[in-house]
Amino acid sequence: MAKVKQKLRYFDFYLFIPYLLLCIVGIVMVYSASSINLSYAGMKTDLYLYRQMAYVILGLVCFTLAMLIKLKKLTSKKFIICGFYILAFLLLYAKFMTRAVNGANGWIDLKLFSLQPSELCKLYLVLFLAQLLSRREQAAAQNTLQATSRRPWLLVYFLLFLILMEPDLGGFAINFMIVAIMYLASQATRHSSKRAFLYLTGFLSVVMVFVFGLRFWNPLAGTKYNYMYSRLMAFYNPFKVAASSGHQLINSYYAISNGGLFGLGLGNSIQKRGYLPEAYTDFIMAIISEELGVIGVSVVLILISWLTLRIFLIGIRSRDVYETFVCYGIGTFFAVETFFNLGAVTGLLPITGVTFPFVSYGGSSMLVLSITLGIVMNISIRQRRLRAADKNH
Q1: Three-state secondary structure call for residue 114
Q2: DSSP string of 202-241?
Q3: Is 68's pLDDT higher than 80?
Q4: Which spans are transmembrane here (predicted)?
Q5: Dihedral sign, Cα of residue 33, residue 268, residue 344, residue 341
Q6: 327 found inside a domain
Q7: Residue 314 to residue 207: CA distance in whole angstroms
Q8: Of 61, 34, 64, 62, which is closest to residue 47 (Cα–Cα)?
Q9: Of these four, 210, 227, 239, 319, which has the most CB atoms within 10 Å of its CB?
């Protein structure tokens, strides 16, 4: 109990308040975006409201537990090995033992919510890579880098491969970016960021050329993965495929256009009335834009930007290399997920089904994001306690 009081003494409200506000916005907007269609279907209009509230409460519990846990437990060899086997099993189970949802076998139905193993991978890879890269830094400092093994990277590649096999392109892209940015950060600390940046730029260039080439050649034609090519075509010209894969993006455009500066008012969205499918999930920002306008969207973006920058700042200030890499990884997680979601809603990126942090409906996303933020809070509290001890001395 004394330890809990001590942690609360150094509690970082600059981190917690934006998180709580985003969760509240999510609860309100999930209800607004889902209630009318539930009414049309003859179901209870508050079904997703209560579910989202339950996810937020569970998220707060997970946040608290992550805040109180000893960080050393997350660096143990047992945690890393067990975590890998559990995630590999869950990804394989989702791929071969579950029914496909929107073309991907990426969810495991737990009744209360659907578990998405690729979401857990984001947290695991942050913790695993932070340990791997911090040890690499220590080895470099002691001039023993040649003795370090590259075999642990095979575990990272294997998990990324399993996510791609589902296929969960959104989950793969975010997990890959977490790995790439954390590696880039480690290279920067060793004064070789230019080489790492060139590698990353080269890889992304090859990907962009390949994606552009798919506009003229469809290698997925006639296969069960043809839906991915359809999404790409919707990204290039949604109005050309308005009756099929472009339908969702076009209605997102209409929602954004309808909202203007101040919006139509809370609950007054037109596109949520059967036009924009599952608007309470990855396209909830389109409904926020329509109902609350540019002002409402700006408030949400300010909150998530503050949260993300705060996480990076905590990482920069940390005296511990492991904690720095953890914060960099989690900050990348938040930033990339936000970018992918907004890119899909505005047509700047292909639709990948990535949710908006803390606002979109979903149990797996809420719990994993809350745990990651609880870990950052844990690090922030430790920093504040150390700074206070330095001042006293």
Answers
A1: strand
A2: HHHHHHHHHHHHTTT--TTTTSTTHHHHHHHHHHH-GGGG
A3: yes
A4: 12-33, 53-71, 78-96, 154-184, 196-217, 292-313, 325-352, 358-381
A5: negative
A6: yes
A7: 32
A8: 34
A9: 227
Buried b (16+ CB within 10 A) or exposed e, 182-208: bbbbbbeeeeeeeebeeebeeeeeeee
Distance CA 302, CA 306 (A): 6
Give the pLDDT confidence score for residue 145 in this predicted structure.
Answer: 52
Could you please report the per-residue DSSP string of 249-287?
Answer: HHHHHHHHHHHTTT-S-TT--STTTTTSTTTTTTTHHHH
Provide the angle, in degrees to the nearest 10, between the axes of the packed helices 152-165 and 77-97: 20
Q: What is the pLDDT of residue 217?
A: 54
CA 118 to CA 174: how far, in whole Å?
9
- Residue 264 within any structural domain of the chain: no
- Give the single-character DSSP code of 166: T
| Closest by Cα among 281, 249, 358, 229 to 107 | 281
Q: Which of 91-100, 140-149, 338-347 has the highest mean pLDDT?
A: 338-347
Rounded to two decimals, what is the model's pTM? 0.88
How far, in Å, are 75, 107, 115, 367 from residue 111 at the CA level? 32, 11, 9, 15
| Distance, CA of 205 to CA of 216 (rounded, Å) | 18
pLDDT tens profile 19-33 = 999 999 999 999 999
Q: Could you read off the pLDDT of 195-223 as tens digits, one per residue?
A: 555 655 665 665 555 555 555 555 555 55
Helix (H) or strand (E) holding 108: strand 108-109
> What's the start-to-end Cα distance of the chain, in Å?
26
Domain assignment present for 261: no
The answer to the question of residue 223 being in a domain is: yes
- Average pLDDT of the chain is 84
* N residues, the chain: 393
Dihedrals φ, ψ of 293, to 5°?
A: 70, -170
State how many domains the chain has: 1
Structural domain including 63 reads: 2-235+314-392
At 242 the three-state DSSP class reads coil
> CB-based contacts of 24: which residues, under 8 Å, 6+ apart?
none
**Contact of 333 with 129, CB cutoff 8 Å:** no
